[in-house]
Amino acid sequence: MTDIALQTRGLGVKYGSFNALADVDLAIRRNSVHSIIGPNGAGKTTLFHALTGRVRASAGRIELDGQDITTTSDDDRVRLGIARSFQVTSLFPNLTLRENLRLAAQGRTPWQALAPWRRAESNTSALAIADEVISRLELGAVAGRIAGELSHGQQRRLEVGMAIAARPRVILLDEPTSGMGIDDIEAMKELIRDLGRDHTVLFIEHNMGIVMNISDMVTVMRLGRKLV
Amino acid sequence: MHPLDKPAVQFGLAVLTVAVLPLFLTSGILATEILIFAMVVAACNLLLGYTGLLSFGQGIFFGVGTYAAGICLTRWQVPVPLVLAGSAILGAAIATLVGWLSIRRQGVYFVMLTLAFSQLFYFMAYTFSGITGGDNGLLGVPRPSLGGAELNAPWSYYTYVAVCFLAIFAILVMVTQSTFGRTLIAIRENEGRAAAIGFPTRLFKIEAFAISGAVTAFGGALHAMLIGVAPLSNIEHHTSELILIMTIIGGSSSLFGSVLGAGFYLLLADALSAVWPRWLLLLGLVLVAVALFLQRGLWGLVERLYDAVLRREPSPTKPAEEH
Ligand SMILES: Nc1ncnc2c1ncn2[C@@H]1O[C@H](COP(=O)(O)OP(=O)(O)OP(=O)(O)O)[C@@H](O)[C@H]1O
Ligand SMILES: [Mg+2]
Fold this sequence. Notes:
Chain B: It is found in: Cell membrane. Helices cover 33% and strands 26% of the residues of chain A. Chain A has 228 residues and is an alpha/beta fold. Chain A has a six-stranded mixed β-sheet with strand order 6-7-8-3-9-10, with helices on both faces. A four-stranded antiparallel β-sheet of chain A has the order 2-1-4-5, covered by helices on one side. In chain A, helix 3 (97-106) crosses helix 4 and helix 3 (97-106) packs parallel to helix 5. In chain B, the strands form two sheets. Chain B has a two-stranded antiparallel ribbon with strand order 1-4. A two-stranded antiparallel ribbon of chain B has the order 2-3. Residues 15, 18, 20, 38, 40-46, 87 of chain A line the site of adenosine-5'-triphosphate (ATP).
């Protein structure tokens, strides 16, 4: 296996006739923390959308461990080992925190969930993963709470937890610290550093302090293009 | 989860309904109709309440079941259990097709597509009158017999339908409790996230359609045997509307709400039509009142009453559900 987990060549995305992303060549090293920085509207989130399959690439190719995944659907990419968190918190707001994570863990084996006679609790490994993520994120005290009623910081942590629960090889975090208090930010930094030991982490962040602190590599984007 | 939403409680309430209807109603026909619509409405609820899909296609599946029973029983004397199973399979197949095509669009366009299919199937039934009997429908649909005894008396047929209803209701409770059902809820809550964590959401919606279509067609077949006819009106868009209205009145947050919705509507219609020929007007007013004041339907009312009387502590208020 090569040392590169995720690679793009000439990647481009169009929204209508607007080039949100163009000619992006990236090579993300395995088990590293790779930061993406750039001003608002630079196309960072769009890059994540393209990497996870939420939007189709209009040009170029994407490879995961050397395998071409350019046209692979978003849910198939989860099974191949790519998971993400969202810049704007996107949870199941009327379900409990634990159920949110159980679903995220189940999403790795969705065909099982098509059986209408199988009880959710029978997938003990999904429950175990959910509990593991809960303790890793120190959310045990609120595990039974409805996600929509959690504090902002807790929701942001859960947002990242949803990506971890998929047991990915490559994890994409879109501004996980946005809107967080200072203590939460410290904990999130630790978490990302820790994730980088056995995951490939791609990480969008505005706070340069954090970026410099935990990144192995930094890519700068502007106007849909990669600068450095 | 609200204590009344526990699966055992939901099924217990269904059993109670079956036991109580004969005590309060003199008409076995009306009681049977309530149970048939209760299962059909619960199947609609699987789409509306659990998956967040407002389908105007339910009348198609109901009508398909009606015609399947009408044709098989008046022309070929197929055994009734086979007819019911066959109707369910046919309903599932057609719902799969309708669902597969309709969920390609979202929101209003999805609703429009289901409406369009509803019109399409109606005109097909109207046009192929050689098969469906057109305007007249298929007359003389017999009721089933059991061990040589014909279940012609309304209350004997009621018993037959009651057993079917409980079986279907149990299946639907199981479906909603399953990991499948809980994934449907996740899709309703946030489809984008459900896809992002790996669920092929279209497939789940299609399966929800298939189950809903199977149950609805099953109910349609039972209905044909109840009224002795397979009428064109069962596949009209009016039937779709009726099923949706009952679902919304009952409240889409629990399966038993659908039983309440069907019962409430049919009993009210029965009572009002006896006192005033223009009863539909009054029914319209009742619907307006429900829409204005009972946002979570009759079931929401039941939950609030339960909390007020038995729990004496406000349950954590859930944000009103949006559809
Ligand atoms: N769905 C969309 N349709 C059309 N244009 C879009 C869409 N999403 C994003 N854009 C545009 O694409 C450009 C890149 O947006 P993107 O969200 O990727 O930027 P970003 O680098 O993540 O910015 P931020 O730091 O504000 O999150 C912006 O000009 C934005 O307005
Ligand atoms: Mg962004």
